[in-house]
Amino acid sequence: MNGSRSSASAAVGLSAVQVAAALGARVVAVGRSPEKLAKARAEGAEIAIQAGPDVAAAIVDTLRTAAPPVTIDALGSSDTTLPALRPRPSADDTCRLG
Fold first, then answer.
1. Which of 3, 20, 31, 70 is most buried, with most CB under 10 Å away?
2. 67 CB-side CA count, 13 A
3. Which pTM was predicted?
4. Comparing C-alpha atoms, which of 53, 89, 68, 85 is closest to residue 20?
5. CA distances from residue 29 to 21, 42, 75, 82 in whole angstroms, order as listed
């Protein structure tokens, strides 16, 4: 799971961050508020990025790779779902929760 990313907004997203971090993933959390992003970092996210139209580019720039190997979207909003899919060559390794 190295390089995985999770939308980290509420209980489901934070749980995904915790599990991914416990499994040794490099967790990049995406969320809409600085407070929730801080919580995601406290729960194990290595990197926290504000959701928005440029989030896909920010993830690629941060990871220095074309795309993370796995994405988990626990928020399900257009602010996070579409950007989570943009850097992906396919949706085969994208998990949507909630």
1. 31
2. 16
3. 0.70
4. 68
5. 11, 11, 11, 15
